[in-house]
Structures are given as C-alpha cells and as structure tokens.
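User: Modeling request: complex.
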Amino acid sequence: MRCLVVHAHPVEESFNKALYRLTLETLAGAGHDVRGVDLYAEGFEPALSADGRRSYHEHGTIDASVAAQLRHLAWCNGLIFVYPTWWYGQPAMLKGWLDRVWLPHVCFEMPEGSQPIRSLMQHLRLVGGISTYGAPWWYTRRVGDPGRRIIMRGLKDLAHPRCRSFWCALHLMDQISAAQREAFAERVRRRLLRLPIELGETPAVQMGERTYWSADTSG
Amino acid sequence: MRVLYLYAHPLPESFHGALRDHGLAALTAAGHEVDLLDLNADGFDPVLGVEGRRHYHDEAVNRRGLEDYVARLGQAEALVVQFPTWCFGPPAILKGFFDRVFMPGVAFDISDPANVRPLLRHVRRVVGISTYGRPRLQAIYMGDPPRKLICRYLRWFVAGKAKVSYHALYHMNVADADRRRHFLGRVERALREL
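Assistant: Request completed. Predicted assembly structure:
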C-alpha cells in the first residue's frame, strides 16, 4: 500500500514521536511505500486566515503549502494519523491540517440542498489512527471521542466504500507504567503488520482542481 | 456578570460577525461587563510548541507568554464561546486556545494524576454558539463533537453548578435568510437573559 502517515507532536523525545517513528519503520519494513508528514517539523500553519476563508469555496485558489499536502493525499491509498489526543480531539496543528487541506472542489464537492457530500477521495482504501489519551476510556466514550469520530466517520465516509480502518488508543497516558507503554507500542506494531500489502484494484484518483496543485508530481 | 466572549471566525463580514455584534449588544444592554476575545483579530497562535509542551505541567512557567489570556479567563464569571464548525470540530485557532490556555494550574489541577480537579469554578454560566454546514442528523451520526466539547467537557471545568447552554444552527449551507434571522434572534434572547 502507499501509506501517508500524518503526525503532530512538538516534542522530539516524546512517546508519541516514538510511535510515529515506529509506524514509519514497521510499514516500510513490511514492504509498504511510506511517506511521513510531521506537521510540527514542517512548520505547517494551521489557522485558516481571512483570505483563506474568503476563497475557501472558490475554484483555483490554493496556497502552496496546502498544494504540497494535496499531492501527498493524491499519492496515497492508505492514510494513518499518529497524534496525542488533547481536549478530546486533534491538536490544533492537525485540526488545522483538516480544516485547510480537505478542500471543496478537490477532496469533495459541496452538495446541493440535502444531498450528501460527493466524495472525490475514493482512492483511499485505508484510514487509521494511533492516539494517546490522558483520560480513561469510559470518560472518553462519555464525551463521544470527538477526535476519533472526525477521522473514523467524517474522513472515512469520503473514502472508498470498502475502505478498511483501524484505531489504536492508549488511555491514561499520564498514569501508566513504562511497561504498559511498551505493550501498547507492541500492539501497534502487530496491528500495522496485519495491514495488507496489496489491496487489489484501487480506483484512479479523482481529486479535482488538479491544475492548481499537482504541477510537481514528485511530491 | 463579567463575560468572556471567546470568538473564532476570521471574517468580519460573515454571518458570525453579525451574530457576534448582536450578541455583544445584547449582553451590554443587559448590563454585563463584556470582554471580547477575537482570536483571529488577536493573531492568536494556536500551536502548542516544543517549549510549551515540555513545560506544560510545570505550573511555575507554563503560562509564560499567555499571561494576558490566563488573566482574562481567570476573571470570567460567564463564558460565551462562538465559532463555526469546520470538519466537524472547532476551528484550529479555537482548538489551540483550549490546548494552550486551559492548562494545569489554570483550568485544572493535575498534581495528583489519579484525581484531577477542575479550577474554573468562578464561571457560573457557559454559552456555546455554533453553526454547521451539514444537517443535524449527520452531526448526530458524527457524535456532534462541538456540542459535546461544550456541553460535556467544558462543563467539567466549571464544576457542576454552572448552567451550560448550547445554540446551534445546523445545515447552514442551505439556510435561508429567515432561518438565519430566527437563529440570530434566538442567540440574542439567550444572551439578554443570561
């Protein structure tokens, strides 16, 4: 599979960063094509600006930093997130990546009236998440696990109808022992090794507005 | 009451701009003391960076650079949070405000990780105001993250006794002028009666 791993954690020596590296290494070792996007390292700008908001629904106004991310999205057929859950959701850095990169006319078409959104991301055959939480699982469930749902329902609904998915969550991050963290890392590794290398036929990329962002296909 | 009005939309000419103006007018007319915090206009940086994350749990230094926001939050007796729902969540700039400013020693006490305590007990009223592009049913299917963040999670910080209300305009993509006006009226009433 062509896996894009999107990651957001500021601290180099953090457990989450270790999970990110583990994900890249495990996937590459298993024979997948892998690309990593470390949003902090890239200095991605997460806030949608006034100009960005004004032109959001228009055709053909795509910022260069966003265009680079769109090329990654067009390249991959598996999309995996590795991030810490803060405030029951993605860190602002990653939330901003969702706000700014998943654009209308490119990733989906805004519907008329009550029609459902029309997806342009049918080439996605896998969506997954690996996340660490400070909260216990039962409280996370009570709040509805917003971060997970944004990815596993919101994004996945735009992917191929037979898109596979997985979610690995580590709870009570601030209280557990090093051995428990290691056990989680091992669980993640095993889960990644179970991903199929070949996915059969993947539909051609349909993402729209290509002339504005796909000039550099080397990515 | 001293009201902290947390606002996150980049465009002054948007429907949110109108909501905010009506909301502020209603609060002032009702005699409240309003502190508007417009995150976009303020140029708030939503990214919790390396230093911020390293010192996040160190209450002696974790508010460095954020003193002004912490002080304004500390004075609030009511909290109004107004934002558009993007990608089924709050905009990154607001998410970053929660990530960075609702920190240990300010919003909660995590000195004993097994027994975390809320610290925003001075807030007696919370009002969430949001608009969604998609219909209500789809928001329910998604678990309505913004509503839960306000009604369940933010409620935890203000500890039990505060009254929390949430006003949402769903399916904004097809909302005609009538529905928008109706929603404007609803928000105005809610804030006037705070």
